[in-house]
Backbone:
């Protein structure tokens, strides 16, 4: 196992434990009993990250754990600002505060990643249509968009991690890469496909059955 793979295993292990401690308004969510899917989703994301960002985020998780803070609970609480505003008010004051500069940085990153999601959906419309809606404006209490999910997640990163993450995103942009495409590329391989093109074709066939 490579150093990066060890980081990913450690991150996913801690996230899974913290995910078990997330309390939902309607009771325990079914996804909290599906570790296989959880691992596929999270590993697909982390495989697209640099080792440096992974190591920093792993330290975020460990630091939070020592302090008795749950980053997964924080992530879902932050999403509720859009999906469940009234319930969000119960968390507003206890969530870590982010500066205006930090929020502007986050929004720039989100804008780039939403562009990547749009580009991916144009080129792989069937695969793109199987996941979350793209925009916060499409949120419902039962359906969280990619934009809102991303905003919730990156808001939990430490200043150190967000700086490294931002550098990674800028470097990918400069190289003409697409983070969404990379993550989905890893994901379809976990599900047994050889390529995104093969998964797109099979998804289209299934939709036409």
Residues:
């Amino acid at each position: 196992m490579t150093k990066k793979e060890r980081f990913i295993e450690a991150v996913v292990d801690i996230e899974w434990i913290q995910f078990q401690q997330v309390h939902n308004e309607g009771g325990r969510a079914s996804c909290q009993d599906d570790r296989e899917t959880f691992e596929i989703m999270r590993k697909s994301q982390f495989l697209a990250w640099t080792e440096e960002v992974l190591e920093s985020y792993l330290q975020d998780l460990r630091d939070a754990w020592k302090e008795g803070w749950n980053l997964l609970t924080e992530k879902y609480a932050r999403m509720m600002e859009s999906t469940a505003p009234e319930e969000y008010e119960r968390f507003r004051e206890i969530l870590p505060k982010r500066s205006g500069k930090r929020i502007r940085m986050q929004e720039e990153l989100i804008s780039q990643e939403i562009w990547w999601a749009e580009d991916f959906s144009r080129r792989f419309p069937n695969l793109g249509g199987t996941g979350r809606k793209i925009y916060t404006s499409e949120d419902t209490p039962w359906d969280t968009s990619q934009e809102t999910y991303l905003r919730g997640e990156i808001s939990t990163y430490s200043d150190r991690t967000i700086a490294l993450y931002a550098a990674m995103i800028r470097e990918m942009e400069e190289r003409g890469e697409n983070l969404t495409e990379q993550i989905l590329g890893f994901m379809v391989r976990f599900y047994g496909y050889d390529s995104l093109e093969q998964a797109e074709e099979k998804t289209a066939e299934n939709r036409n059955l």
In short: The chain has one domain: 3-207. The mean pLDDT is 94.
